[in-house]
Predict the structure.
Amino acid sequence: MLSRATARASNHLFFKNKNKNSQLLGLSNNLSYAASNPVSNFVSITWNNNNTSRMSKMKSFTTRATAQPLKNADELIDSVETFIFDCDGVIWKGDKLIDGVPETLDMLRSKGKRLVFVTNNSTKSRKQYGKKFETLGLNVSEEEIFASSFAAAAYLKSINFPKDKKVYVIGEDGILKELELAGFQYLGGPEDGEKKIELKPGFLMEHDESVGAVVVGFDRYVNYFKIQYGTLCIRENPGCLFIATNRDAVTHLTDAQEWAGGGSMVGAIQGSTQREPLVVGKPSTFMMDYLANEFGILKSQICMVGDRLDTDILFGQNGGCKTLLVLSGVTTLPVLQNPSNTIQPDFYTNKISDFLSLKPAATV
């Protein structure tokens, strides 16, 4: 059973590990803290001077019963007000739209359902994702899109991250655009992709001591320079945060195969710093809490639809939502039904267009 731990200190950060032992990390600056991710066991930090803590409610999660195939789509649709859809593997694969998506979304809108699209892919901003939806012929507004790039900026705003501090980015343009829109100073990103370190006796790499957070997302231009720079900031700058947009093992850059995901970049920094990241993307509950507050949604009236067990389905379960797994992306039926799999959605089906065809059997 996973539980949410809380910790608070005025001059130190206590990190709650899996063995429930507190470790003093020796950070200062009169910060207040609250642990808020039962999955990653991270500690979130509120940058303020009044020493008030953003406390989270204690929750526990239990293993679900074996998932059932979706047989009556109308019953599920009528039971909720909002559908949250993952994008990669649910709406599209790479740059190819999955069959039946436009008709399904139109049907749900005609029934008055609120639609929200949440993706762990941080390479694009909300505005850039809006253009992708438009290119694929889907009418989706920017306000309906929540990418992990946006979540990173939203999290920093929620903890009153100081405007005189900087953010070092190991990631792509989407994170930079969202940080800029939120009014934060940043460095790194794609422009550091060409930088190299020439090792020689006595060489010392300099870093900006005003960096107060390192944000790590998917980065096709990751290199040793970025890893070392991010490592120095986290290890040597007092109170520097280590924020991950997500820890996805794989991603869909094309529809031909799976590619190494953002988790590989996060893992590099985790390995060099020996620090656990604060994850703002799925399955962290941060985005779910943000969505619920933004739209005034009751979480029990939400159905989370995704293709990944350890991100999408766990994200929905951690948020107290109904969950539907689609087999159009990463997870296959054998993986779902493997006895070693402990993450079970409420229902599963082949793809979201099954909403159009799955009706209850007629009674005689």
In short: The first strand starts at residue 2 and ends at 3.
